[in-house]
Every structure is written in structure tokens, then in C-alpha cells.
Design goal:
Blueprint (H helix, E strand, L loop, with lengths): L5 E5 L25 H10 L4 E5 L10 H9 L4 E7 L5 H9 L2 E7 H4 L9 H11 L2 E5 L7
Parallel strand pairs: 1-2, 2-3, 3-4, 4-5
Helix pairs in contact: 3-5
């Protein structure tokens, strides 16, 4: 592994501490789950010092508690990407930024392409820019046009 390698996309599933919401469309099974401790051990085994945690669209959706807890417990090792929806508000961005979140993710696969037409999205993007965040877009190839 090259020096200073960073894993740029990983999910934390800590169902013991943070059970999936009842209304979750998909709940990853136990063999797909991994706690911060499990993940840190994998990073250590491969000499990776830091990682970017992405709040999973499956299981947790917009519940960022597992990711934020992992960021806090990681003591600087992890940063995070929050899931952005049309309901996300600007105050939550600021609160998440204080907890180590550095960007947001739009899920065109799960939420549909119409999420980009939400009237408040331009303002949310402006807040992200003010926070120094970047945007990650999850989409299928035919949704990129």
C-alpha cells in the first residue's frame, strides 16, 4: 500500500448500537455489517491511516448517528459524507460539519432524478459551498445525462 493511502468510500453498520430504522427499505444482513472497530482493524492490517466514511443509503438512510459516532471515536482518522435529500435542512449541515462531515451525497438511484429539481437544492448547495463541502452523486450510467 502506498504511504499515506486513504480509503475514500466505506460504510459503518453498527446494528448493536444503532439498529436500522423500522422503515428501512433494505437492511443489510449481519455478514455485510461492520463496526468502526472492525473497519479500523482492516485499515490497520493494510497500513491505511485515514478513511472517508459514507453514510449508507441502505440501512441507515439519513440517520447519521453510526457514522458520526465512528468519526468521533476515530479521533481524527475518519471524515464523513452525509446523505442529502430534499428534506435535508441547512442547520443539520452545520451540525454535521462540526462533527467531522465534509460533504454530502445525493442518491439518484434510490431517490430518483427528481431530487435534483427540488426548489431548495440551490440554497443547500450554497450552504455546502460555504462549509467547504463537496458533493458525491450516486447514479447509474443512464442517469448521468
Amino acid at each position: 500500500m502506498p504511504a499515506r493511502a486513504v480509503d475514500c468510500h466505506a460504510h459503518i453498520f453498527d446494528t448493536r448500537r444503532f439498529p436500522y430504522p423500522e422503515n428501512a427499505a433494505y437492511k443489510p444482513p449481519p455478514h455485510e455489517a461492520g463496526t468502526r472497530e472492525n473497519y479500523a482493524a482492516v485499515l490497520d492490517a493494510h497500513g491505511i491511516s485515514h478513511a472517508l466514511l459514507v453514510n449508507p443509503t441502505s440501512g441507515y438512510g439519513t440517520d447519521h448517528r453510526a457514522m458520526v459516532a465512528a468519526i468521533k471515536a476515530g479521533k481524527g482518522r475518519f471524515k464523513g459524507i452525509a446523505k442529502l435529500t430534499s428534506e435535508s435542512d441547512e442547520k443539520s449541515f452545520v451540525a454535521l460539519a462540526r462533527q467531522g462531515v465534509v460533504g454530502a451525497r445525493i442518491d439518484l438511484v434510490g431517490d430518483g432524478v427528481d431530487v435534483v429539481n427540488h426548489p431548495g437544492l440551490a440554497r443547500r448547495f450554497a450552504v455546502m459551498r460555504e462549509l467547504g463541502w463537496f458533493l458525491q452523486v450516486q447514479c447509474e450510467k443512464d442517469q448521468m445525462a
